[in-house]
Specification:
Number of domains: 1
Shape: elongated
Strand content: 35-45%
Strand order of the largest sheet: 2-1-3-6-9-12-15-18-21-24-27-30
Helix content: 10-25%
CATH architecture: 3 Solenoid
CATH class: Mainly Beta
């Protein structure tokens, strides 16, 4: 009798360990491949629970609102699987929520391999990690698109080499709004930490630690202007910079968005020890009514610098306009 009981117990354990990793919570159906689970959701609003593991899977979401949720936070790791030569998740449904996942090692020949590529709808990201890739999240021109990121980490991302357009930790084309709260950016490998052409931004209570960055640029680049808020962030500029002119840049490539009313307030901004070059909290080409107050800045950091001033400003504006023109030709999906 004891032998029979042990055998039954072992069979049950084997079945549990062998369960398919992608489960639709609302139906109980499980799948071996993420793409099959996404297809099964179809136009519905449902949750895919992802078991702990390292996956080379990728998926294209064409409909519905899908919640991609780790069964245990940050133990479900998507490692380098690319769909359509773009990203691990290519999203063009109604919307998606990402909760507790890890995305790493995404690279493509075009140099902008991403954990997530948003092409339509709304994206919410929470409690997740993006690391060791060319880009964390990329969105091109998504009319009405919205992105919300909370409590997430972006590490060892970006590049600006090989004669290709730069990649960034985060890049958003012409979408409606970007919200980033309580998140961490560190160890950038080129480009900007956040580059956004969104009409409105809310970047708050986050940290930008560039002390171990390599050939990086701005912490926040709003190349076509933007309104909204940049509040209570901690920013430290490292010494290995491709561009150390500022922490935040606004309208370097054009003024397609309204910037009146943008608020930059309550930020703590410093350079790593031993750095002597001058820089600025805000480098601004807008001539808009931007509110800048209550920021704590270190030595040799100007609060505000006019990007239009002087010969350098004229040359910079010309280069910016040229970049903006090239970007428009590319449909707003480049850098």
């Amino acid at each position: 009798m004891k032998k029979i009981i042990v055998a039954v117990a072992l069979v049950g354990l084997s079945t549990s360990l062998g369960a398919a990793p992608f489960t639709i919570v609302e139906t109980g159906r499980s799948f071996e491949r993420l793409a099959d689970a996404v297809a099964a959701v179809g136009p519905a609003t449902q949750t895919i629970r992802i078991a702990p593991g390292v996956y080379r899977d990728c998926a294209i979401q064409k409909a519905g609102w899908v919640r991609y949720v780790a069964a245990q936070p940050r133990t479900a790791i998507f490692d380098g699987g690319i769909c359509e030569g773009k990203a691990g998740l290519v999203l063009r449904g109604g919307g998606a929520t990402i909760d507790g996942l890890v995305f790493q090692n995404f690279r493509v020949p075009e140099g902008n391999g991403s954990g997530i590529r948003l092409e339509k709808g709304r994206l919410v990201v929470a409690n997740s990690i993006f690391r060791d890739s060319e880009q964390g999240i990329l969105a091109g021109a998504v009319p009405g698109g919205e992105v919300v990121i909370e409590r997430s980490t972006f590490s060892h991302l970006g590049r600006c080499d090989r004669g290709l357009d730069c990649a960034h930790s985060l890049y958003f084309g012409r979408i409606q709004s970007v919200t980033i709260r309580r998140s961490r950016f560190e160890k950038g490998m080129g480009g900007h930490y956040v580059k956004s052409r969104a009409a409105r931004v809310d970047i708050s209570d986050s940290s930008f630690d560039d002390t171990h960055g390599h050939a990086t640029n701005y912490m926040v680049d709003l190349p076509e202007g933007s309104t909204g808020v940049i509040l209570r962030n901690v920013m430290v500029q490292g010494r290995d910079k491709e561009n150390h002119g500022a922490f935040i840049a606004v309208a370097a490539e054009g003024r397609n968005n309204v910037s009146d009313g943008l608020i930059v307030s309550g930020n703590r901004v410093h350079r790593a020890p031993g750095i002597t070059w001058p820089t600025a909290l805000l480098l601004d080409w807008t001539r808009a009514a931007i509110r800048i107050d209550h920021n704590e800045i270190g030595p040799k950091i100007e609060m505000h610098r006019d990007g239009n001033a002087g010969a350098a400003g004229v040359a910079g504006a010309f280069i910016a306009r040229l970049k903006a023109y090239v970007g428009r030709l590319a449909g707003g999906s480049g850098n």
